[in-house]
Specification:
Blueprint (H helix, E strand, L loop, with lengths): L1 H4 L3 H23 L10 E3 L4 H18 L5 E2 L8 E2 L7 H14 L1 H28 L2 H13 L1 H4 L5 H4 L3 H14 L3 H17 L4 H14 L1 H4 L3 H32 L9 H6 L18 H11 L15 H13 L1 H18 L4 E3 L2 E3 L5 H5 L14 H4 L1 H16 L8 H16 L6 E3 L5 H8 L5 E5 L7 H10 L2 E2 L13 H5 L1 H4 L8 H10 L2 E7 L5 H10 L6 E2 L3 E5 L12 E4 L2 E13 L3 E11 L7 E9 L5 E3 L3 E2 L14 E10 L6 E9 L4 E12 L6 E4 L2 E7 L3 E11 L2 E10 L7 E8 L6 E7 L1 H4 L11 E9 L6 E11 L8 E3 L5 E2 L5 E2 L4 E3 L3
Parallel strand pairs: 7-8, 7-9, 13-21
Antiparallel strand pairs: 1-6, 2-3, 4-5, 9-11, 10-11, 12-13, 13-14, 14-18, 15-16, 15-17, 15-19, 19-20, 22-23, 22-29, 23-24, 24-27, 25-26, 25-28, 28-31, 28-32, 30-31
Helix pairs in contact: 2-5, 2-6, 3-4, 3-23, 4-5, 5-6, 5-9, 6-20, 6-21, 9-10, 10-13, 11-17, 16-17, 16-20, 17-20, 22-23
Length: 842
């Protein structure tokens, strides 16, 4: 205590301010819980925008180290690259991150800066309120409200909306400039104004409105001394302009050097992202005690938004009561802040007032009136003006609290009452636990890709465009170019490469042959395809696992990675060379056998070790072992739509070739040969010769009735069996995938009365009771699918069956065509089986 008494008043004042900063930091840790115990394992913020801002710091670091402009990068939108002139760089978040990252690590440094900026918001507001009110407890309440403002805490993934502490600092020195005669205050005001611009240039828009309102509202204070005041204000403006000139010149130069434009104003956001007036008195939908009541209310306010964009704009009942007290008791000091608050509310209303989810266009909003000037629209999202409402609201509440604690009965209890008020405000503003982006997962695959030799790009799937923000975070680990990438305001060329390539645009569904897709990516110097399990449906995941003709480079519970140039010995077996540069890495023969037909399917996985210059074909032949007489089929290209003369080195493709065998018992020998497609010359010995007999059939259908009906272009119904047991009709359908089916089709079976055509029972299903969707079928897949139709409750009599296949999404039935044996087809696209189903009397 003696040491404190020896300190000067100025030193004591700054020690108090330092202690208050520590207190605000502790409160920041509390309201962002559980960030502190997970400081290095997650990125603070409710959306993946946090990953973009983390990437921003990393990219600046890379650009500075390589001596290039940070406003142009080839790491995104490969192969064209993209301009970052209109990208959202929070420079005041980036600069300290560059200093702290080598010491603390990237994630910890990023999160710590957010906490520091929250504390600085409270501290800066305390300084401004202290200047105006000259009472530390009232000023502390102003700082607490400003820091814990609900809309601010909903934007922790946007550092530029967190670091608004320069605004109260600017207003502090502006007020001193208007009230005093120190040129130094004008200089500091100019520097603070420049720092607002460095935080994010759009922040200058609301600050301009706030500054103009304050200048007009305090005109009686400074107008009598305008000869002294205006030059100092001129100095403030000059300092800000000079300080902001370097980045402005850089951005302008980059913009002029590019012939690509970007949309600065998003009309769709203007319409939906406006603030409902009732939201100002509705607590957060994530409030631990009130969310059951507030969530449906807020959802009702914003039916035209996705749930993740329904932000809280709650002012607080306590804050409103204190503001009302301040306005009544100290009208002369507070009216300008009330006017400022009303202007900000009018701007946050967007193009039309919104009340309880309904748009009211009768009375125009200030935002709409100013729309022709474009300035107010530069914020892009009108609701963001509600963030800046925190400043006048906190000052109004502080004036109200000052009036309360200065009363004779309460003044001696003011410290305890201020503490109690702080708890009440934090309770009202509560919205924990904090939402964040989990980053503490296995990143081995990206560290491996970072170590791979050569300069190459990576394709991330799914093909997310504006929302490919996770891919940016992953890029900070693997350091490779990617085909997507998020830019805040998108230049015209963004995603152009993807959209111009049909085979790429349809990914990840693999509409084109996987080997063809990989070859095209390899040609574009894309070396790896990374599928993110957490962003993909299970059906897509199975699709790649079944249809890729070689093993993945890497697989875990989060990622599946394929090399576009598979490595022999790692991703697949070395090929058995049939010709120079062409060989097979796998082959198989599957057969379907019934008393009426035998179908053999030879599946080959081809691989090239060098580019091919000729077009090759294959031919299957069958010879009865007893006679040795060989019956060949016609030649077919290895792949119909992709001649082998276009196959580059490293191509791996799988194809199946079908052969109908005589229905005798055999045995037969099936052989496959390569031919020169141009002159029909056989090339070398058969690639394989395998024996087929009744004992080795993959699917033995016995006396199944022959069908040979083609559904669409890919599904061939070979045969069927029907059995009746009690009230269950068991239908077994024997299918051949002529080609790889493009979609997951549904099958239906109708039991109908042949006289009335009325359907009396039906079932809609997918193969093997949904376990093997047709989208998973490979070319040449043989499937025996047993379907049980329940007959309980059906009147005795004679009935018939209809079978069909349809698109599960559109309901459109696949057309039918007969292959060999004519069967009846209904007008509505059903295969009508000739069998009569008799349901006997019980």
């Amino acid at each position: 205590m003696r040491c404190m008494s020896n300190l000067s008043p100025r030193t004591k004042r700054w020690l108090l301010r330092a202690a208050l900063f520590v207190l605000y930091f502790a409160i920041a840790c509390l309201i962002t819980w559980p960030l502190i115990p997970q400081l290095g394992g997650m990125l603070v913020g409710r959306t993946s925008d946090a990953m973009v801002h983390y990437w921003n710091g990393w990219w600046f670091q890379q650009a500075l180290q390589s001596g290039q402009s940070p406003f142009q990068t080839g790491l995104l939108n490969y192969p064209e690259g993209v301009s970052l002139v209109t990208h959202n760089f929070a420079l005041l978040n980036i600069m300290p991150w560059l200093l702290l990252e080598p010491i603390l690590g990237g994630i910890t440094a990023y999160n710590l800066i957010i906490l520091l900026y929250l504390a600085l918001c409270g501290w800066a507001m305390f300084l401004l309120a202290g200047e105006l009110l000259d009472h530390p407890q009232a000023a502390f309440i102003a700082g607490l409200i400003y820091m814990a403002w609900p809309f601010r805490l909903s934007q922790l993934d946007h550092p530029n909306l967190i670091a608004t502490f320069w605004i109260p600092i600017f207003l502090l020195f502006l007020i001193r400039t208007l009230r005093g005669s120190r040129w130094l205050d004008a200089l500091w005001a100019g520097l603070a104004l420049a720092m607002v611009g460095y935080t994010r240039w759009q922040l200058l828009v609301p600050l301009s409105f706030m500054t103009l309102i304050y200048l007009l509202g305090s005109v009686k204070t400074w107008l009598p001394h305008w000869r002294e005041t205006l030059p100092r204000l001129g100095l403030t403006a000059l300092v800000a302009i000079v300080a902001l000139l370097p980045p402005a010149v850089i951005l302008l130069r980059e913009q002029m050097a590019s012939d690509l434009s970007a949309d600065v104003i998003y009309k769709q956001d203007e319409q939906s992202m406006s603030t409902d007036l009732l939201a100002y008195v509705t607590p957060s939908k994530r409030h631990f005690a009130l969310k059951e009541m507030t969530k449906p209310l807020i959802d009702n306010y914003y039916p035209d938004r996705t749930p993740g964009r329904r932000y809280p704009t709650y002012i607080g009942i306590t804050v409103l009561i204190l503001a009302a007290i301040g306005l009544i008791k100290r009208w002369r000091d507070t009216w300008v802040w009330l006017f400022m608050a009303l202007v900000l509310i009018a701007l946050a209303a967007g193009m039309a007032w919104r009340v309880n989810g309904q748009l009211v266009a009768v009375v125009p909003t200030l935002y709409k009136l100013l729309a022709p000037l474009q300035v107010a629209r530069l914020m892009r999202i009108p609701e963001r003006y509600a963030l800046f409402l925190a400043l006048p609201a906190s000052l109004l509440a502080a004036y109200g609290w000052l009036s309360v604690i200065q009363s004779k009965r309460l003044s001696r209890w003011s410290p305890i009452l201020t503490l109690l008020l702080s708890v009440i405000i934090l309770f009202e503003y509560q919205s924990t636990p904090l939402q964040s982006q989990y980053t503490d997962y296995n990143k081995d695959v990206f560290e491996q890709l970072a170590q791979e030799p050569g300069d190459f790009a990576i394709l991330n799937l799914p093909l997310r465009y504006r929302f490919s923000k996770e891919y940016l975070y992953e890029q900070t680990i693997h350091h490779r170019s990617i085909l997507q990438g998020h830019v805040s305001r998108e230049p015209d060329n963004l995603y152009r490469f993807i959209e111009q390539k049909e085979w790429l645009y349809t990914l990840p569904e693999l509409a084109a042959d996987p080997g063809y897709v990989m070859a095209q990516l390899r040609e574009a110097n894309v070396a790896y395809v990374v599928l993110s399990k957490y962003l993909l449906e299970d059906s897509v995941w199975r699709l790649w696992k079944r249809h890729m003709p070689y093993a993945p480079y890497y697989s875990d519970d989060r990622y599946l990675v394929y090399a576009t140039t598979p490595e022999f010995g790692r991703d697949l077996e070395p090929p058995l060379e049939a010709l120079p540069g062409l060989g097979s890495v796998a082959s198989s023969l599957t057969t379907f056998c019934s008393t009426e037909q035998v179908v053999a399917v030879a599946a080959m996985t081809w691989a090239t070790t060098a580019p091919l210059s000729n077009d090759y074909a294959v031919q299957l032949s069958v010879a009865a072992d007893e006679t040795g007489e060989e019956v060949p089929t016609s030649m077919a290209p290895l792949i119909d739509a992709w001649p082998t003369s276009q196959w580059p080195a490293g191509t791996v493709v799988r194809q199946a070739y079908t052969l109908n065998l005589p229905p005798e018992t055999g045995p037969y020998t099936v052989a496959l040969r390569l031919f020169d497609q141009q002159n029909g010359t056989p090339l070398g010995e058969p690639l394989f010769e395998e024996q087929v007999d009744s004992a080795s059939c993959t699917i033995d259908a016995g006396a199944a009735a022959e069908a040979n009906i083609l559904f669409g272009d890919s599904l061939r119904l070979l045969a069927y069996n029907i059995g009746l047991e009690e009230d269950i009709l068991a239908i077994t359908l024997y299918w051949l995938g002529q080609e790889r089916p493009p979609d997951a089709y549904k099958f239906f079976i109708h039991l109908y009365d042949p006289r009335t055509k009325e359907i009396v029972a039906q079932i809609d299903t997918m193969p093997l009771n949904y376990q093997l969707p047709t989208s998973d079928w490979q070319s040449g897949e043989l499937v025996a699918d047993e379907i049980n139709l329940v007959l309980a409750g059906i009147a005795p009599g004679e009935y018939e069956l209809g079978i069909g296949v349809y698109d599960a999404e559109t309901g459109e039935r696949l057309p039918l065509s007969t292959m060999t044996k004519p069967l009846q087809i209904s007008e509505d696209g059903r295969l009508l089986l000739p069998d009569v189903i008799r349901i006997p009397q019980e």
